[in-house]
Write a structure and sequence with these properties.
Strand content: 15-25%
Radius of gyration: 26 Å
Structural class: alpha+beta
Distance between the termini: 78 Å
CATH topology of the largest domain: Glutaredoxin
CATH architecture of the largest domain: 3-Layer(aba) Sandwich
Number of strands: 18
Strand order of the largest sheet: 1-3-2-4-5
Largest sheet: 5 strands, mixed
Length: 443
């Protein structure tokens, strides 16, 4: 072999080694990340703008480029918000361009190592976003969900407008530092979900992440509820998390994020003199960039007599006067409700109007078919032991006919009105005859 050939071979080896070293210093794209394949994250496939599941490296990159971070949180297995997530991840050109050119963008698909003191948002969401600086200044939140549906409040137009508002806040920092202070809550006593005192199945969660072994966002609220129960600090007020603007009378245009579409007559907002057509620019001194920002402010107002300062783009500052119980709303959509005691452990789909008519039941009242009893659980065993059978139709609770409600609303009704150890009297229809079955509620 000639000297020239040897030198050429050595040079190729050196170039290859340098390339490998350079590549090892880069953040893996979604396609290269083995986690994407493990959890079958199809919406991330080919979406090369995202730093995948690595907030720490994204913050380093944001610091170098002096850009804000756009961090999306997605529960990949969940069907809710899947279409919206796909558009944000790689479909919508306007959002895609902003995410690539103006932000350092992160796709976070698990909660194991996330700093929960910094990333505080409504963890019952299937898709959420936070906008922060490299140093942890919170600019805005995005993502809202309710019983109206997973995407009732989310829109690509609204997200794009929120991103432009975030860029303005980033450009105005640190002059706006005081106003932004309230967007970040007090430091928690733990850093990550695995350190939460109320998190169940910790040993399992310490294993490798997969679809069956992933700390979902709602597990954070599960753990908070569980610990509150354990420590004797639980109250139902803890359940009215992140109330909607409608709770104070404001219906916000989801295509904009801060423009008031309408004001409910007789509401605190109406009484304060706020009118439709203007924008909510600040609440309790915090700049507002989205519906989720409004919810963040309301989340930290107590569920009793209180006041909230709302600044309108045209009419200036108003004081909303709230009364005790103002936060209460339909929480049947929340994933964290299912783990809350008491649990009946019975699958009860609602009868259709036609099915109710066949059985001689009023069509303007709810009736639930006992489709399946989980006899592998203590609660299911107790239900079975008490006499409940698959095929029974639940028509009343404590002798009162059921008003129109969905199965999730029926589930919440039981949790809000009964406690572990109490007796649950159900009236069921079996073979055309009514009978009362009394179930002792257990964990």
């Amino acid at each position: 072999m000639s000297l020239r050939t040897v030198c050429r071979s050595l040079m190729l080896l050196i170039i290859a080694a340098a390339a490998l070293q350079l590549q090892s210093g880069k953040v893996r794209s979604a396609d290269e990340n083995p986690l994407r394949a493990t959890i079958k994250d199809e919406n991330a496939k080919g979406a090369d703008l995202w730093i995948y599941n690595d907030i720490a490296k994204a913050r380093d990159e944001a610091r170098k480029q002096n850009k804000p971070l756009f961090v999306t949180f997605r529960c990949v297995p969940c069907k809710d918000c899947a279409a919206f997530d796909a558009e944000v991840a790689k479909g919508n050109e306007a959002v895609h361009r902003l995410a690539r050119e103006k932000f350092v963008s992160v796709r976070q698909v698990e909660m194991k190592g996330v700093d929960l003191s910094l990333f505080q948002f409504d963890h019952d969401l299937n898709w959420a976003a936070m906008f922060i600086s490299a140093d942890g200044v919170v600019y805005a939140r995005y993502g809202t969900q309710s019983a109206a549906g997973a995407d009732a409040y989310n829109s690509l137009a609204g997200l794009e407008k929120t991103m432009h508002r975030v860029l303005a806040l980033h450009a105005g920092y640190p002059k706006n530092k005081t106003a932004l202070g309230g967007k970040r809550a007090a430091q928690k006593t733990y850093k990550t979900a695995l350190e939460m005192p109320g998190l169940e199945d910790k040993d399992r969660f310490h294993g490798s992440t997969s679809r069956k072994n992933c700390i979902h966002c709602h597990n954070i609220h599960d753990a908070e509820n569980h610990y509150a129960k354990q420590s004797g600090k639980f109250t139902q007020d803890l359940l009215w998390r992140y109330p909607l603007p409608e709770n104070v009378g404001l219906l916000i245009d989801e295509e904009d994020g801060i423009r008031i579409k309408s004001v409910k007559a007789g509401s605190p907002a109406a009484k304060a003199g706020i009118r439709a057509g203007e924008e909510v620019t600040a609440m309790n001194g915090q700049p507002i960039a989205s519906i989720a920002d409004i919810q963040w402010v309301l989340h930290h107002v107590p569920n009793k007599s209180a006041t909230v300062k709302v600044t309108g783009s045209k009419s200036g500052e108003h004081t909303l006067r709230l009364v005790t119980g103002w936060k209460k709303t339909d929480i049947s959509w929340r994933g964290s409700i299912w783990s809350l005691s008491p649990r009946l452990r019975v699958w009860t789909p609602e009868l259709t109007a036609g099915e109710k008519k066949k059985k001689g039941l009023p069509t303007d009242q709810s009736a639930f078919l006992v489709k399946w009893i989980n006899v592998g659980s203590l609660a299911g065993k107790e239900a079975r032991k008490s006499g409940l059978r698959e095929g029974d139709v639940i028509v009343a609770v404590a002798g009162k006919p059921l008003k129109q409600m969905t199965p999730p609303q029926f589930n919440v009704h039981l949790k809000l009105n009964y406690k572990v150890g109490q007796k649950l009297p159900l009236t069921v229809l079996r073979a055309g005859k009514r009978r009362v079955i009394t179930i002792k509620l257990v964990e």
